[in-house]
Amino acid sequence: MLVQPARRAIVVGAGPVGCLSAMALAKLGWHVTVYERRSDLRAASLQLLHSNTKSNPRQRSINLTLSSRGIAAVQAVDGSILERLMNYAVPLQGRMVHCFDGTVARQQYDRGGHCLYSIERGLLNLLLLEAAASVANISIEFLHKVQSVDFNNNTLRLYNSATAQELEEHFDLCIGADGSHSVIRRDLMQATQMEYSQHYLSHDYVEIRLPHGVDGSGNHTFLLDPDHLHVWPRGDFTMVAMPNKNKTFTCALFAPKSVFDSLPRAEIFLPWFKTYFPDLCSLFDEKRLVQDFQNNPRSHLITTKANPYHKGATIILGDAAHSMVPFYGQGLNCALEDVRVLSILFQREKDGHNPTVITRVLDEYSRTRHADLVAICDLAMESHLKLRHDVATWSYMIKAFIDNILYAISRTGSLVDLSQTISGPEVPSGWIPLYSMVSFRPDIGYSAAKKKAERQERLIDSVGLGLGALSIGYAAWFLFSVVNKLVAGY
Ligand SMILES: Cc1cc2nc3c(=O)[nH]c(=O)nc-3n(C[C@H](O)[C@H](O)[C@H](O)COP(=O)(O)OP(=O)(O)OC[C@H]3O[C@@H](n4cnc5c(N)ncnc54)[C@H](O)[C@@H]3O)c2cc1C
Q1: Which atom of ligand 1 is nearest to the CA of 177?
Q2: Is residue 487 predicted with pLDDT exceeding 50?
Q3: How does residue 477 score in pLDDT terms, banded at 50, 70 and 90?
Q4: What sections of the protein cross the membrane (predicted)?
Q5: What's residue 52's pLDDT?
């Protein structure tokens, strides 16, 4: 019997991962339909771009940072899209830590000019959406909410909210890129014995827009150094600010729910803000600051872990498979990397449209990707403590200094061609700081990076312990000889 080649792929969700997945599949010869529950996101994104004051309550954050993993993933699908994205991105060379005592410390992200790129979320989504919509074998259907999946018959049940009708669609391959509260994941949980966990962080966040300044000639200017991501670590809570291309900054206050609950009125909020962020406060118009704080949405942060990510011909990617807290700036980068990894697994097959091959590829993806996804979720959580407390401490700065010295004198293997390579368990020799491996070395898998960094940290700790023991030993010997001399004098 002749097996008909599978041709029809459905992608659920037209967020960044949905759009990139659709383009990657189209390149592999699939006819792709993207179903998105919202109305045309292009209109919403344009609206967001032209609004300088408030975030759209349906968007979770105004801007985010792209680093090498996200960049490599977009590049693998279409280099020209990457060029367009970069036109709207602001490069960040490092972080600037604003300590409570008023001192400011600059911490470079990496040697060799590697940067993070801050870009408006709405704009990123818009550019990817436009790129996907312009591909001949991709069609995007808005106002279509996926309600359930039938894994045995490869069908999706949808609700078209424009016509108020239900419909059923058949697929040969389905990618669930429907975000943190994924319907596809919900159904996968029932159909597979999925191991699943979710954890809400005790901290919420609120975003506040820092407007641009104006110079003597009337030109718009940045009110903070635009080459850096700014952090105000205050122990239990922290403020982060990232520049936008229009010379504004997006600030995000991350704090325990109890702190937000204790600041309901302007008379309480403003003195509190002035106490903890005096340098930042002086840049705001107080009325606008209070308005933003009170009116902008207060959002939660969730970590989800799942395993496996597929059943039959259906798979979840991006936040649908792994939501993480944003403190490593990797949620989207990792999500875009999912697309690159899956595409490479398909490219390695001669007959990627054959149903048996599809199941085998998805199986391999679930099996090989899991350790990396868990590792980055954990690293993101650990980074929360670093960002709100450690980065301002001497012990962190000394360790980072030693880390960077060893990196500078170490020979490390260079990047390989990523269009065919999946980051795996092998790590290059030499000393590479964890931040550099995670953000700038997409050839190193997250879990391999985590393990290598743990070994390096143990070494720094034991050298530190050794030096500490030596100094205590020397001090003890010195004290002993002084006492001895004194006693001998009597
Ligand atoms: C405060 C904050 C800051 C962040 N900063 C960074 C950063 O600096 N760097 C970084 O890499 N990541 C960052 N992230 C993470 C990043 O935002 C996410 O990882 C990324 O948006 C995930 O993209 P996605 O396409 O998987 O999901 P989403 O962007 O959530 O898109 C899902 C899409 O699916 C649609 N959908 C949902 N359900 C259905 C349905 N039933 N039917 C049809 N359509 C549906 C939705 O409408 C949406 O369009 C941050 C996150 C937060 C919260």
Answers
A1: 26
A2: yes
A3: confident
A4: 459-480
A5: 45
CA of 182 to the centre of ligand 1 (A): 11
pLDDT of residue 170: 97
Q: How many helices (H) and strands (E) does the chain have?
A: 15, 23
Nearest to 314 by CA among 184, 431, 433: 184
Ligand 1: which atom is nearest the Cα of residue 323? 19
Ligand 1 centroid–CA 177 distance in Å is 9
- In this structure, what token pair is assigned to residue 47? 């609206």
* Six-digit token string for 168: 């059923």
Comparing CA positions, the residue from 135, 137, 143 lying closest to residue 164 is 143
Going from the Cα of 356 to the center of ligand 1, the distance in angstroms, rounded, reads: 31
Closest atom of ligand 1 to 205 CA is 1
d(CA 128, CA 146) in angstroms, rounded, equals: 21
Start-to-end CA span in the chain (Å): 107
**53 vs 187, residue with greater confidence:** 187
How far, in Å, is the centroid of ligand 1 from the Cα of 167?
25
DSSP letter for each residue of 411-449: --PPPPPTTS---BS---SS---HHHHHHH-TTB-HHHH
Identity of the residue numbered 396? Y
Query: What are 122-151's pLDDT values in tens digits?
Result: 899 999 999 999 999 999 999 999 999 999
Nearest CA to ligand 1 atom 53: 60
What number of other Cβ atoms are within 10 A of residue 276's Cβ?
Answer: 18
What separation in Å is there between the alpha carbon of 96 and the centre of ligand 1? 27
Per-residue pLDDT tens for 225-249?
999 999 999 999 999 999 999 999 9
* Cα 419 to averaged position of ligand 1 atoms, centre (Å): 24
Residue 414 is predicted with a pLDDT of: 66
Contact residues of ligand 1, CB 6 A cut-off: 12-18, 35-38, 60-61, 64-65, 145-146, 177-179, 183, 205, 252, 318-319, 326, 329-333, 335
Average pLDDT across the chain, whole number: 90
Indicate the top mutation candidate among 71, 178, 340, 446 to test ligand 1's pocket, ranked by most ligand atoms within 8 A of CB: 178
Quick one: pLDDT at residue 54? 43
- What would the mean pLDDT of 436-462 be, rounded to a whole number? 93
pLDDT score of 55: 44
Cis, bond preceding 308 (omega within 30 deg of 0): yes
In the reported structure, the alpha carbon of residue 319 is separated from the centroid of ligand 1 by a whole-number distance in angstroms of 6
Q: Where are the domains of the chain?
A: 8-200+301-388, 203-299, 393-471
The answer regarding whether domain 8-200+301-388 maps to CATH 3.50.50.60 reads yes
414 burial level (CB within 10 Å; 0-12, 13-18, 19+): exposed
pTM for the predicted model, two decimal places: 0.91
